[in-house]
Amino acid sequence: MEFVFDAWYVAGWSRNFQRALVPLVLLEQNLVFFRQTNDQLVALEDRCPHRLLPLSKGKLVGDNVECGYHGMTFDGSGKCVRIPAQDNLPPSAYVDRYPVEERHGIVWVWMGDKDKADPNLIFSMTEFDDPTWQMHLGDTLHIQAHYLNVAENLVDPAHVSFVHPTTLGSAASKDVPVEVSTSGDPIAAWRWIRNAPPVGFFQEFGGFTGNVDRWHYYYLHLPSTAVIDFGSAASDLQLKEDERHKGVRIFAIHFVTPVTRDYTIDHWMHLRNAAIDDDAASGQIDGLFRIAFAEDKEILEAVHKEEQRPQTRAPIRIAIDRAPLVYRKRIKELIEFCLLYTSDAADEEDS
């Protein structure tokens, strides 16, 4: 098993799910989403238990989904409520239901043991509800790469100088050491670049022309949600680390959802403390992010392609790999714990 199933993952933005059947693959599981007439969003196993046709090939009938092959119909709980020309509804006529929650226009789905699906575990930030911050849902980035590579890239400030030299980074940060904290969740990595020219992002958004102090704080929440706190302030302000709110500050949030072993979707959004209620600013930032994230995509897909080729020796590790290595170790531990729990539960049922 390569995935942490007992977790909430982002399936998309609420705006993407209306009164239609929406098929999605998450963690190599086929799901179909649809809204019922009361606006409740439902996620079911996308496979009829009769001839295995995906239910997404059928149609909505009121609050139920009708299979497009023989008309077996399932309600929002996954229970079969109709078999044409047959009164008997066998107990085996059902599909799995996946717990779904919507928060702040974001759709979350629980992919593991339903008894563990605690909505309190859904990722949140106080800034989501703070009127002094602007929240903006962005796009989805489709990456042909393993999700672990995508996620660990989001706890790696060192790559910014080289992958994003005209957008989020510059040569001024190439030799600035990265500090790391791996003592808890989230894993964190950060650095400050003092008294340097503004990067392209903050020349465009922020309007800085003179030298700035800028920061990058990368926080990776298990299993795969990343928050990047970055910003700039005029160097003469000499901001301390805990005074970042006095500068132009942005949280770029990445909800990394594994699709398959070779395919990952990054749902990204941002929060900002400037240009509140300015739609033009949201569009400007989206445009800048699209350029930067396309740079990540190119690198990650090239790495993934090389990983599939024969290797005569293992890749080396250097000092900046500390946070990614700890992340991989913790994911491995979570997966092993899940396997142990599943095995113990099966033993109890057999005894």
Q: What does this entry look like structurally?
A:
With 351 residues, the chain is of the alpha+beta class. Helix content is 21%, strand content 32%. The protein contains five helices and 18 strands. It has helices at residues 147-153, 160-163, 200-204, 279-307, 322-350; strands spanning 8-13, 22-26, 29-35, 41-45, 59-61, 64-66, 73-74, 80-82, 97-98, 100-103, 106-110, 134-143, 179-181, 187-196, 212-221, 225-234, 248-260, 263-272. The strands form four sheets. A seven-stranded antiparallel beta sheet has the order 12-18-17-16-15-14-13. β7 and β8 (80-82) form a beta hairpin. The longest helix has 29 residues, at 279-307. The two termini are 25 Å apart.
Task: Give a topology summary.
Layout: E1 8-13, E2 22-26, E3 29-35, E4 41-45, E5 59-61, E6 64-66, E7 73-74, E8 80-82, E9 97-98, E10 100-103, E11 106-110, E12 134-143, H1 147-153, H2 160-163, E13 179-181, E14 187-196, H3 200-204, E15 212-221, E16 225-234, E17 248-260, E18 263-272, H4 279-307, H5 322-350
Question: Which characteristics define this entry?
Answer:
351 residues, alpha+beta, seven-stranded antiparallel beta sheet, four-stranded antiparallel beta sheet, 5 helices, globular
User: What is the terminal-to-terminal distance?
Assistant: 25 Å
| Strand arrangement across the biggest beta sheet | 12-18-17-16-15-14-13
Question: How much is the radius of gyration in Å?
Answer: 23 Å
Q: Identify the overall geometry.
A: globular
The share of residues in extended strands comes to 25-35%
How many strand units? 18
The chain-level mean pLDDT equals: 93
